[in-house]
Amino acid sequence: MARFSANLGFLWPDRDLLARIDAAAAAGFRAIELHWPYAIDPAETRRRCEAHGLELLGINTPVGGRDGDFGLAAVPAREAEFRDGFDMALRYAEEAGASAIHVMAGVTVGLDRRACEDTFRRNLDHAARATDRVLLLEPINQRDKPGYFHSTLAEAGQLAARVGAPNLRIMFDVYHVAISEGDVTRKLEDYLPRIGHIQIAAVPSRAEPDEGEIDYSHVISTIDRLGYPGWIGCEYRPRGDTDAGLGWMRAYQRDGS
């Protein structure tokens, strides 16, 4: 049966982070994931999760300090800044109890591809040696984030293979995969052994996964059929009130999918 986690980077956008945690628990979620929670004391994040019996799945590395940054792991000449940011993310994950860190590669348009690949490999190797927590690589589509370093599963898989660390995994965001390359079902089958987390949203709107061109009843049944053991992250932008839009999820819970 599919298990859904609340991505609090997008859900309940009208509330502060701690109130979002409360809202996720009240809505029946048993796990959450965060984007950049660094303004909140990690000890308070842990306390709030533990009070509600919520599992904290993951956080993102910092985006960087310059306009246009969206991560730094693949940006040459900024290795020290990336490593400081990764160390901050790791400390936060350890103190808050997060089990995974999404290592954000960054926007590299106009930079030498080989230099970016080498930088990413070195930074991933550093990160993988620093922790046994899961490190996630997420291909992000070029429509939403032009110039992002990697936008396909093949690129992410090749980069992880170059490092060869067992804790490097792929974040399979169905929304990004559908926009970048399509063939979602086959790619779920092909990449399952390397997937560390799955996320969903409608395509092309990125709203609740009950509209658009992706048949999520098929996608979620495929995920179940394949025996994926993890959580499915609800990383979508609500059309309106978050709670009012959760009917799609309750339908899956009622039919046991």
Task: Please describe the topology of this protein.
Layout: E1 4-7, H1 17-26, E2 31-33, H2 42-52, E3 55-56, E4 58-60, H3 79-96, E5 100-102, H4 113-130, E6 134-137, H5 153-163, E7 168-173, H6 174-180, H7 184-191, E8 195-200, H8 216-226, E9 232-234, H9 247-255
Parallel strand pairs: 1-2, 1-9, 2-3, 4-5, 5-6, 6-7, 7-8, 8-9
Helix pairs in contact: 1-2, 2-3, 3-4, 4-5, 7-8
Major β-sheet annotation: 9 strands, parallel
Please, what is the average pLDDT? 96
H/E order of the elements? EHEHEEHEHEHEHHEHEH
**Number of helix segments?**
9
Assembly state (oligomeric): single chain
**Architecture (CATH level 2) name:** Alpha-Beta Barrel
**Beta-strand content:** 5-15%
The N- to C-terminal Cα distance equals: 5 Å
- What is the CATH third-level topology name? TIM Barrel
Query: Which stretches of 5+ consecutive residues score pLDDT under 50?
Result: none
- Proportion in helices: 40-55%
Shape descriptor reads: globular
Structure in a nutshell:
With 257 residues, the protein is an alpha/beta fold.
